[in-house]
Every structure is written in C-alpha cells, then in structure tokens.
Write a structure and sequence with these properties.
The protein has 217 residues and is an alpha/beta fold. The protein has a domain at 55-204: Rossmann fold (3-Layer(aba) Sandwich). It contains 6 helices and 9 strands. The chain has helices at 3-16, 24-32, 64-73, 91-99, 110-122, 159-163; strands at residues 53-56, 59-61, 81-85, 102-107, 128-132, 145-150, 165-176, 181-188, 196-204. The strands form 2 sheets. The protein has a 7-stranded mixed β-sheet with strand order 5-4-3-6-7-8-9. A two-stranded antiparallel sheet has the order 1-2. Strand 6, helix 6 and strand 7 (165-176) form a beta-alpha-beta unit. The longest helix has 14 residues, at 3-16. The chain binds S-adenosylmethionine.
Length: 217
C-alpha cells in the first residue's frame, strides 16, 4: 500500500465510517480518490486531516466528513444528473463523478475552476463539466437535476434552485449567517416546486455563497 492509500483508509475509518456514514459506494469512492492531488503541494501532508484546508483565493476544500455527509444525503445510485455549486478544488466533484452519471459543477472564481478542471481531466473524470459563473442561478437549460449540492453557505434557500429539482430530487445546502450555518436537505415531492420536505442535518461552517441569490459580495 502506498503512503496516501494508507492515509485514505485511515481517513475513511476514523473520520467518516466512525461518525455514522454507511453508504458503501461513498466509503469506497473516498478510499479511492487521491484527495492529496486536490490540495496545494505545501499542504500534502495535511491532505487527509480531519479539517478543511485552504485552496487559495480565500476558499477551502471541505472537511472529509462533511463531504461524505453531504454526498450520502444525496442518495446517489449511479444514474443521476447532479449539479454542484462551488467547485472549489474539484474534490467533491470527483466524488460525485464516481457516484452519479453526469456532474455539472459551477465555480465563480475562474482560477479555481481551471485548476479543478485540469486535475479532474488528469484523473479521467470525463463525466464532469466545470463552468465559471454565478451558481446561485443554477443551470436552467440543463435542469431538472436529480440532485443539487451547494458547497458554500447561503443566507436563504434560493427558490430558483428548488425549481430546477426533478420530482423526487434532493437539494443539500448550508443555510445561515456568514459564519455558521445549518445543513438543510430538501426533497421535491411533486410537480409543485413548493411541495418540498425540509430536513435539518445539523450545524456546519462554510465560506460564503456569493452571488445574485446568495450573499452580495
Ligand atoms: N466543493 C469544493 C471542494 O470539493 O473543494 C469546496 C467548495 S468551497 C467550500 C466553496 C466554493 O464555492 C468556493 O470555491 C467559492 O468560490 C465557491 N462559490 C461561492 N459562491 C459561488 C457562486 N455563486 N457560484 C459558484 N461558486 C461559488
């Protein structure tokens, strides 16, 4: 076993499985994806630590457990079309690419999108499309989505994203103030976009979702 493979196994056992994540596909994919390739060289020895890490531009790659929790909550089986808002390093997109059919990911900072695109391509994740823009609008032309994951903290749930969920589709989004949020899961129950079940998954802390339907600056 190479050094990083050992670290990945330890990360999954001690940070993810031990905290109650049971979806076998999520656990296996996290054991497989080389998370250290998504962080800066200077942080290589911290890539599998139990915390978020800086990725430049004052943004972060999320804590492994939070990535696992959000992903498990989306209940992916391999057939889904998924929208991610906040590509960041591209690590979450790689995990989604392992677990769903197609992934569209939007990042507002062009330099991060370009870096993420390069690493995803080098790892042969050809079912992910990364684009630069304000993800708070969603991606109407590509909707409906079976799952939408927002990886930055929003002041409120943007209605426009609910409208882009397929019936039965799941949206996971941290909602709160600029410093602390609650992880919310929404499930669209019928053709009526307001017919939504909302679940509270607990407290979390994300960088801000900045855009038209997020924080203004
Ligand atoms: N999913 C990422 C990963 O695996 O590394 C972590 C994302 S980081 C916590 C949040 C990201 O959301 C940042 O890269 C930030 O630039 C981006 N972001 C914030 N507001 C956005 C918006 N309106 N549209 C797209 N991306 C946005």
């Amino acid at each position: 076993m190479d050094r990083y493979k050992k670290q990945r196994k330890k990360m999954v056992d001690s940070q993810v499985r031990s905290r109650g994540i049971t979806d076998k596909r999520v656990l296996e994919a996290m054991e497989k994806i080389p998370r250290h390739l998504f962080v800066d060289e200077g942080l290589l020895n911290q890539a599998y630590d139990d915390n978020p890490l800086p990725i430049g531009e004052r943004q972060t790659i999320s804590q492994p457990y939070i990535v696992a929790l959000m992903t498990e909550t989306l209940q992916l089986t391999g057939k889904e079309k998924v929208l991610e808002i906040g590509t960041g390093s591209g690590y979450q997109a790689a995990l989604l690419a392992e677990l769903a059919d197609r992934v569209l990911s939007i990042e507002r900072i062009a330099s991060l999108a370009s870096k993420a695109r390069n690493i995803l391509e080098s790892l042969n994740y050809f079912n992910v499309l990364v684009c630069v823009g304000d993800g708070t609008y969603g991606w109407k032309d590509e909707s409906p989505f079976d799952a939408i994951i927002v990886t930055a903290g929003a002041p409120a749930i943007p209605d426009i994203l609910k409208d882009q969920l397929a019936v039965g589709g799941r949206l996971i989004i941290p909602v709160g103030d600029r410093y602390t949020q609650t992880m919310m899961k929404l499930t669209r129950l019928s053709d009526n976009p307001d017919d939504i079940k909302i679940e509270d998954l607990g407290g979390c802390r994300f960088v801000n979702l900045v855009g038209q339907h997020g924080w203004k600056g």
